[in-house]
Amino acid sequence: MDAARIAPKRFIPLADLEDMRRAGTEFAPALIKNEIGKNLKSMKKEINNTKEYYAIQAPTGKIYDADGSTLLWDFNMPAGHIITLAGTDKWDDHANAMPHIDIRTWCGMIADAIGLENIHSFEAVASPDVINDLIANTNFTDLVKTQIGVQLALEGKLEKLAGVNIKEYRGDYEDEGGVKQNLFPAGYFRLGAVTDDLTEEYYAPPVKNVPGGVGSGGIPPEIAVSFEWVEDPAGVWLYAESRPLPAVHDSQVFVSAKVK
Questions:
Q1: Which of 13, 36, 65, 233 has the smallest number of CB atoms closer than 10 Å to its CB?
Q2: For 154-204, how does the pLDDT look when each residue is reduced to its tens digit (9 = 90+)?
């Protein structure tokens, strides 16, 4: 398995730097520092958003790049842990579906695979439409009248439904074509067991290492930063780079279910 390379960059034209210097010796350093800081913050956010995108996919056993075309990592998740519900079992059949029974079954599947004694708790995330289906399910009619039901309706989470903490996941990102995509796909419910040795994230050395760059030698950093002056066009390039290698030690701790 190879580490990913997340390497955003930003360019500050010399003309912009000169405009800041014209503010005088009292203000110029602060203006330049703020401009660099703004760009570094933007690049860090881009890196963290990409890592979040990777993390969301981990419970499926496979992690793809932003456009979903290239497989980056395959954790060899057992086929039986990839669920697709059909017919009246789908959770949008509010009169017949039994999601709490499904969840208990999947918890049992994980416990059988890794041993119940190794599990501290069960956690799950679901798309907003799936949470709406849980609320609308007629088997939960009495539930939504309780405090737990109020919590589900207002906060998008359930504490200890069938022994599982369930949270609604929202968020989006722009793919390489600039099209906004949901971070967590609609219609999915992903369950995981919390264990002592669930996942790990390693880092490879940065590829970009220009003179003056941070991160050369020693333990590879989570994010390395470097700067490079260029003449044509005149200005400075700011580089940030992270080379994460996520590791799922046992993919049997997860179940990924398409529930509608």
A1: 233
A2: 565 655 566 788 889 988 777 667 777 788 889 999 999 999 887 888 888
Render the chain in DSSP notation, one character per residue.
Answer: -----B--EEEEEHHHHHHHHTT-TTTHHHHHHHHHHHHHHHHHHHHHHHHHHHHHHGGGTEEE-TTS-SEEEE----GGGEEE--GGGSTT-TTT--HHHHHHHHHHHHHHHH-GGG-SEEEEEE-HHHHHHHHH-GGGTTGGGSHHHHHHHHHSEEEEETTEEEEE---EEE-TTS-EEESS-TTEEEEEEE-TT-EEEEEPPPS---TT-S--SSSPPSSEEEEEEEETTEEEEEEEEB-EEEEES-GGGEEEEE--
Q: Is residue 147 included in any domain, yes or no?
A: yes
Query: Do 143 and 107 share a domain, yes or no?
Result: yes
Predicted confidence (pLDDT) per residue in 223-239, tens digit? 888 888 887 788 889 99
Phi and psi at 7, nearest 5°, equal -135, 75
Per the listing, tokens 């695979």 go with 113
Count of domains for the chain: 2
Say which amino acid occupies 74. Answer: D
Q: Is residue 55 part of a domain?
A: no
Domain boundaries, position 173: 61-198+250-258
pLDDT at 146: 60
Tell whether pTM > 0.90. no
Q: What is the spatial distance between Cα 139 and Cα 157, in angstroms, rounded to a whole number?
A: 17
For residue 225, which amino acid is it?
V
- In the block, residue with structure tokens 């609609």: 186
